[in-house]
Amino acid sequence: MHLVMQAVAAEPHFPLAFVLVYVVGFIAAVTIGSIAWYNSKRPPGWENKERPDIVPKVEKEENPGI
């Protein structure tokens, strides 16, 4: 039993910084993806639904720089 406890205690732990990077990245990806989805064309049956207040309105450019 003592040997097992030493093996577990000697095992390196996964750094907290890596976990935080993954969690923050996942939250950012979900947020950006949700904003992009709400600003895209609506699926059939959703055309007249209102946009949530938290999602910003993104305007299209009339004349893109060529």
UniProtKB/TrEMBL annotation:
It holds the Pfam family Psb35. NCBIfam families: photo_II_Psb35. Keywords: Membrane, Transmembrane, Transmembrane helix. It comes from Cyanomargarita calcarea GSE-NOS-MK-12-04C. It comes from the Bacteria. This is Uncharacterized protein. The chain crosses the membrane at residues 16-38.
